[in-house]
Amino acid sequence: MSEAPSPPSRALGPPIPGEPGIVSLVPFGLGQEKPHHFREMLEVLSENSDNLLYAWNILNHGVCDGCSLGPRGLRDDVLPGTHLCMSRLKLLRNNTMGPFVAADVLDIGRLRKMNERQLRKLGRVPFPMIYRPGDRGFSRVSWSEALGLIGERLGKIPPTRQAWFATSKGITNETYYAFTKAARAMGTNNVDFCARLCHAATVSGLKSTIGVGAPTISLSDLIGADLILLWGTNLANNQPVSVKYLAAAKARGARVVVINPTPEKGLEGYWIPSSPASALFGTRIQDDYVPVRVGGDIALMNAVLKLLVSWGRVHASFIQAHTEGYEALVSHLNTLEMPDLVARSGVSLAKIEWLATLISRAPNFVTVYSMGLTQHRFGTQNVQGVVNLHLSQGALGRPNAGILPIRGHSGVQGGGECGVTPTTLPGGFAVNEVNAARFTELWGFEVPTTPGLTTGPMLEAAHDGGIDFLYNLGGNLLQTMPDPDWVTRAFGRVALRVHQDIVLNPSTLIDPGELLVVLPAQTRYEQRGGGTSTSTERRIRFSPEIPGHPQVGESLPEYEIPVRIVCAARPDRASAFEWSDSADIRAEMGQVMPVYAGIENLREEGDWIQWGGPQLCVNGDFSGMPNGLARFTALEPPGSEVPEGWFVLTSRRGKQFNSIVFEEEDRVQGGQARDELFLCPEDARRLGAKQGDRLRLKNDHGEFIGTLRLSPIVQGTVQAYWPETNHLLPRRWDPISFEPDYNAPVFIERA
């Protein structure tokens, strides 16, 4: 490395602390746009009044089935005290409600007029059902009949014409393991899960640079960090328990910087109901806001790096000992002009310099990011840009310093680790001839050796008539993928579709090519032997079976259903699945998956292990990389695809959990309805529109009419609730991770 230049005085000195404070002197935020936590708690109490004891036992003893933070009961391993959020409470009804009756599903035309919320409120799926094109509605069948129909057909379908897809809401590691093993027993690697839609870019970006596709720190490392960057994420809405951690970090002096296209009111200040002072007066979270343009993140990262390098504020010894590609990165940065980076990022030079100053003076900094970085055609590169920043400062492999991609679902971290992907087997073993031979010996049947299809290409194959069997373990691809009309056609061209779920959703109602089978599953709290889930910090927790809920019809444990399907289609492989309960599966996982060693010992409430320990990459350990060195990546900022006079459409979540919408009103951000369109006042004036006007978004894929809500969002951007505008999104994937891009150019006019 060349001799370091002299840094400016502003880049030197101790960390610049955050500024704690309250939001309002008015108790309980009266008159403020904020969640009404205590009112909502009363609503949850009423909603579950027919099963209150069971609901309480779930909350008190079960591992959370909401987001990926994974509190155990009402406790966690970050802070003492009670940990409970409204996301978990609003999902509680899925676990306590009873079943629908046969008469509810006799008319599929009536069901198709219902939205996701109405279908969910019908109740749990209580028995196997079938539907053929032209039938008036679903017909109840026995398990024996359902499995016979599936087995007879599936046994004749070539592996290349099968597709297996799993969701992650409430799914346990045992179910993931059984599901992916079942797919491989049927000879296919066409198996994927919903992380493809949210954090596939994380896995590819981190694996290609530091050798491990997982968060490098624990949640507790937020408390004690000097600087926390919240980049492309909205924790207050999507992982609200984490706001308590941010408040504790602020109390220890952390500075919190939010980098998003729009200010998030819940990150500016939040009322934490389990903290008396915060519940009364609110807690200030955000210290600085950096308004980055949608798609401008790489330009911003390059601009910050360019300054840090020019100031000589990089960790030279760490870079020299533990990384490669730094000189190439610097050469690339030298070709980039700062005015161009400013324009592409949409961030002023003053704010870029301030962000670089904060990083320069923070020995311990953490980047928390989410789908604002990953859901782009260049999502993998966005993640590589985050890694560049951390490698430049040596901010990896130690407490309070690292990268924390925040997950949205309780089971999603474990799904990939258990091998529900077309490119890996359980334990992170890549699909190739050597590893397939290892699993062939372990499992006793031949495991396919070539990678399979990811979710997008699976659906493309289905649309083109190349898939005859589609197994949906939960999930609602109709409402979570771009271009839902195309998804409908793809689903309709599959001869045999199986939907395993606890409730109906709109994707369940699409006509099949020949036969649709719906199979009733139990929740994680009902499954025999309990189950485990892996949180966003790599912590594998055991959640016990919760007694007290009446058996829901003929529902079976989630892990048992794919096993029964394989045994029906390939009875010669039944001996590979001789598990009496989930403990037997964990015993096998402990043998097969070295990274999950110890899972076989999890059997009591409160049991957990954390694979990799509290931090990964400790002491520069990048052994997952080919030569043991972390890799800098030279990144070219992407150009804009938005025509002159058009806008970039991006999305936000309201009062919802993934595609499960709880309410029309978005109390965190102040939204009043799901059709609202967020625009800045300058853009509204240019359109000759005012608050409350009806606007039409349109492009080559469709149109959407909504109501204008003025917002301090970055100019040239329109934000809408997801998934209402998914039909405006083109089908395009990040070419490395195959994660969908959820942004699109749109033209706006008054309706």
Q: What report would you give on this structure?
A:
By secondary structure, the chain is an alpha/beta fold. The strands form 8 sheets. A 7-stranded mixed sheet has the order 2-1-17-16-15-3-4. The protein has a 6-stranded mixed beta barrel with strand order 22-28-25-27-26-29. A 5-stranded parallel sheet has the order 9-6-5-11-12. Helix 23 (455-463) crosses helix 25 (484-492). The longest helix is centred in the middle third of the chain and has 15 residues, at 297-311. The protein is globular, with a radius of gyration of 25 Å.
Q: Strands, helices and their partners?
A:
Elements: H1 37-47, H2 52-61, H3 86-91, H4 93-96, H5 108-112, H6 116-121, E1 129-131, E2 139-140, H7 143-154, E3 162-166, H8 173-185, E4 191-193, H9 200-210, E5 227-231, H10 235-238, H11 241-251, E6 255-260, H12 265-268, E7 269-270, H13 276-281, E8 283-284, E9 288-291, H14 297-311, H15 316-322, E10 323-324, H16 326-334, H17 338-345, H18 349-360, E11 365-369, H19 371-374, H20 379-393, E12 402-405, H21 412-417, E13 424-425, E14 429-430, H22 433-443, H23 455-463, E15 469-473, H24 477-480, H25 484-492, E16 496-501, E17 515-520, E18 531-534, E19 539-543, H26 560-569, H27 582-592, E20 608-610, E21 630-631, E22 647-652, E23 656-657, E24 660-661, E25 676-679, H28 681-687, E26 694-699, E27 702-710, E28 717-721, E29 744-750
Parallel strand pairs: 3-4, 3-15, 5-6, 5-11, 6-9, 10-21, 11-12, 15-16, 16-17, 22-28, 25-27
Antiparallel strand pairs: 1-2, 1-17, 7-8, 13-14, 18-19, 19-20, 22-29, 23-24, 25-28, 26-27, 26-29
Helix pairs in contact: 7-26, 8-26, 9-20, 14-17, 14-18, 14-20, 23-25
